[in-house]
Amino acid sequence: MKKMIASIAFLFFTAVSAMADYTIYLPTKPGSGLDQWAQVVIKELKKHIDGDVKSVHIPGARHRLGMNKWQNENRFNEGAITVTGGTTSVNTLVVSGVEYDYTTWDAIGVQLLDIFVGKRKDWDPKDGGMVFGNDHAAGDVTGMVLMYCGNLDGKIESYKKCVDEDMKYVKGVDDKQGTLMFANGEFNVFRGNPTAWTKKIAKFEHGELWFTQGVYDKKKKRIVTNPNAPGKDFDTVFKETWGEEPKGELYDAYRLVQFQNDSLQKGLWVNKDAPHRKKLVKALKKMLKDPESRAIIAKASGGDYEWAIGEEADKIVEYQRSLYTEKKLKDLVWWFNNIFGWKAEFKPELLK
Length: 352
Hints:
There is one protein chain. By secondary structure, the chain is an alpha/beta fold. The protein folds into 2 domains: 2-112 and 263-319, Bordetella uptake gene, domain 1 (D-Maltodextrin-Binding Protein, domain 2); 116-261, 3-Layer(aba) Sandwich (D-Maltodextrin-Binding Protein, domain 2). The chain has helices at residues 2-18, 33-45, 64-72, 86-94, 138-149, 156-166, 175-183, 194-199, 234-242, 249-262, 277-289, 291-301, 311-323, 326-340; strands at 22-26, 53-57, 80-84, 105-111, 116-120, 130-132, 167-169, 189-192, 207-212, 215-217, 222-224, 266-271, 307-309. The chain has a 6-stranded mixed β-sheet. Strand 1, helix 2 and strand 2 (53-57) form a beta-alpha-beta unit. Helix 5 runs antiparallel to helix 10 (249-262) and helix 6 (156-166) packs parallel to helix 14 (326-340). Residues 2-18 have low confidence and may be disordered.
């Protein structure tokens, strides 16, 4: 009898010790767009892993506060995971005060999403008077400016003149405020990730899709047309509007920052060589093969978008670095400072 009890106790202890507890650190507040996406993914991922999963939110400074703390402290904790969005990635290009570095992490997986830009049906860009604003969506706003102004003379400074003379950019606006201002008719243009678009903006009777930024193709290593919005990618709509391909200094800078944003827009990461990475990658693969989980995530993501899993996502980080040039980075610094009023800086270490 004693041997039987001892055996049962041993088996119980072994099962419990095999389980792991995870803490997911999010650089945003509860209920934000990134948090909503993360909570759905976490719920489905939990079905395929052993152990408890809890969330810790550290919002502030456009993701910098939480991600700096992740880099300097939290990533070394047992079972630590972080969640990143497009803003997290864009910050690393030119924004001051960024202490975190994607190259010091390993990916669990990244969902390859898009950004949608809509406009009022009763507003024709050719009539002028574009009114818009979103403080953290610098890449998307840059696309709006390009689509509205055309190629001009190709010089980035010319677009500031276009903004100053022909457009009204409202500063201090976040996604929630911008959606409300679009709904109330104060904005005639607005942006949103696929989730925000399908759940909110697309339901406005006065709104319609203007263009999308496109999605990252892992095999082609470039942004391509979003299959959930065929014929609406930026380059196609630009050529239809202006009769020529987009080009110039601002377009080159836009493509760099938008690729940075969209190819890593929503992701899960652990510290470099973290022992729990392998287990989590395996769980993510199981989750994505589960039809029910896949459908739930597709609904939360505004469409069934592809994922880059494990080393596939690590390779995206490496590839991003290969696209950096001194000219593009300095143009982005100038643009962010002069248009958005950000504290942007040129980071020569990115070119090493």
